[in-house]
């Protein structure tokens, strides 16, 4: 069985699902074809916020947490939105589902797993605030507590929002990400066509693009 099947998924509705594709391959397909901008947008926000231990996919009301980072051949992922608590015992971690219907345990966990979970939940909280502020700006009522189900992803006992992040200027985050993407695009064009002077003119192109967008 283990020679042919490489991925096992425990699904709340479908039960045990097995696949011949590796977990890394499944993750790559999901992030590339489902997520907006893949993982690049999420990683950019984490970098700007200084969340070095961020190891998750944040979808506001869903948070998929990686126990062994993204890049390893075999990875373990947990949907934190199904769980209300977790417990550490030496080198193992056990997640307890909402209303204690079941538990899920993993061995050989990272010693910094608490920090990783905290930063991942903080990251999702920031994305939630950004999303809800956008909804409010277009008059689409969506209360911050609309996704609260008793899971740990909105329980601040598992992460401590710092004053700097609570009052963080979200416009600054987005503007910096847009700037990075403009620069990546300019560098790609410069490399593709051997026109490296375009990279030096990045400030001019970026300034004009942003000014036109803001005027519009």
Fraction of residues in helix? 40-55%
Indicate the low-confidence ranges by residue numbers: none
Count of all domains:
1
Could you give a short account of the major beta sheet? 3 strands, antiparallel
Tally of DSSP β-strands: 8
Specify Rg, calculated over alpha carbons. Answer: 20 Å
Given helix and strand content, the structural type is alpha+beta
Q: Widest sheet: strand order?
A: 3-4-5
Q: Termini, distance in Å?
A: 59 Å
User: Shape, please?
Assistant: globular
> What's the pLDDT, averaged over the residues?
78
Query: Element order, helices and strands?
Result: EEHHEEEEEEHHHHH
**Tally of individual helices:** 7
Proportion of residues in β-strands: 15-25%
What features would you describe in this structure?
Keywords: Membrane, Transmembrane, Transmembrane helix. The chain crosses the membrane at residues 45-67. The protein has 216 residues and is α+β, with helices and mostly antiparallel strands. The protein has one domain (35-214). It has seven helices and eight strands; from the N terminus they run ββααββββββααααα. It has helices spanning 23-33, 40-49, 113-137, 163-166, 170-193, 197-200, 202-215; strands at residues 7-11, 15-19, 56-58, 63-66, 77-79, 83-89, 92-97, 103-106. A three-stranded antiparallel beta sheet has the order 3-4-5, covered by helices on one side. The protein has a three-stranded antiparallel beta sheet with strand order 6-7-8, with no helix packed on it. A hairpin with a 5-residue loop joins strand 7 and strand 8 (103-106). Helix 2 packs across helix 5. The radius of gyration is 20 Å and the shape is globular. The relative contact order is 0.10.
């Amino acid at each position: 069985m283990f020679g042919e099947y490489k991925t096992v998924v425990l699904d709340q509705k479908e039960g045990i699902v097995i696949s011949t594709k590796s977990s890394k391959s499944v993750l790559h397909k999901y992030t590339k074809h489902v997520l907006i901008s893949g993982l690049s947008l999420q990683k950019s926000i984490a970098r700007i916020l200084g969340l070095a231990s961020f190891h998750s996919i944040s979808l506001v009301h869903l948070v998929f947490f990686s126990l062994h980072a993204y890049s390893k051949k075999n990875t373990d992922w947990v949907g934190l939105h199904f769980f209300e608590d977790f417990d550490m015992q030496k080198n193992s971690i056990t997640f307890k589902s909402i209303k204690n219907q079941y538990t899920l345990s993993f061995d050989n966990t990272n010693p910094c797993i608490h920090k990783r979970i905290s930063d991942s939940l903080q990251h999702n909280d920031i994305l939630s605030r950004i999303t809800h502020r956008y909804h409010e700006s277009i008059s689409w009522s969506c209360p911050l507590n609309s996704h609260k189900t008793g899971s740990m992803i909105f329980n601040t006992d598992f992460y401590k929002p710092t004053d700097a992040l609570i009052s963080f200027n979200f416009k600054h985050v987005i503007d910096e990400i847009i700037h990075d993407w403009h620069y990546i695009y300019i560098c790609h064009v410069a490399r593709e066509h051997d026109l490296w002077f375009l990279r030096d003119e990045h400030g001019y192109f970026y300034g004009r693009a942003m000014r036109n967008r803001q005027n519009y």
